[in-house]
From TrEMBL:
UniProt keyword annotations, A-Z: Membrane, Transmembrane, Transmembrane helix
Protein known as: VanZ-like domain-containing protein
Pfam families found in the cross-reference section: VanZ (PF04892)
Domain VanZ-like: 43-124
NCBIfam families with a match to the protein in the record: vanZ_1
Length: 131
């Protein structure tokens, strides 16, 4: 079987979810006021935690499907965390540069990263065979 096809078959859920996240990030927002870093919108951060948590979970699920095994090394966990965190950074950068009436936010990036890490940790606990 073609490796590229195998990769897509394994990670299709994570890829679709990542596209959905980008769609959400690109939707035109109302003109938002410049928010002080310490005035954090809790509901917004919970949404960021949730969508990136699901992404992290789906990435672990894809890894398990691709490798036909239920174990995963610390190195691979770190790679998944870095990939999800990089995607969170990309969404924030694009919001700051390309999407109308949207802005990049450090607190959103931190929530994205924490959500991805939590999703990966939860998936590891639920899906990965413990050694």
């Amino acid at each position: 079987m073609d490796k590229k096809k195998s990769f897509l078959q394994s990670y299709w859920g994570a890829a679709l979810w990542a596209a959905f996240i980008m769609l959400l990030c690109g939707l035109p927002g109302q003109d938002l006021p410049n928010i002080d870093f310490w005035e954090i919108d809790i509901e917004d951060k919970i949404a960021h935690l949730g969508v990136f948590g699901i992404l992290g979970f789906l990435m672990v699920y894809g890894f398990i499907r691709k490798n036909s095994q239920k174990n995963i090394s610390r190195k691979h966990i770190l790679i998944l965390i870095l990939a999800a965190t990089a995607y969170g950074a990309l969404t924030e950068i694009l919001q700051g540069l390309l999407f109308p009436s949207r802005f990049a936010s450090l607190s959103d990036f931190l929530a994205d990263s924490l959500g991805a890490i939590l999703g990966i940790v939860i998936a590891k606990k639920l899906l990965v065979k413990q050694r």
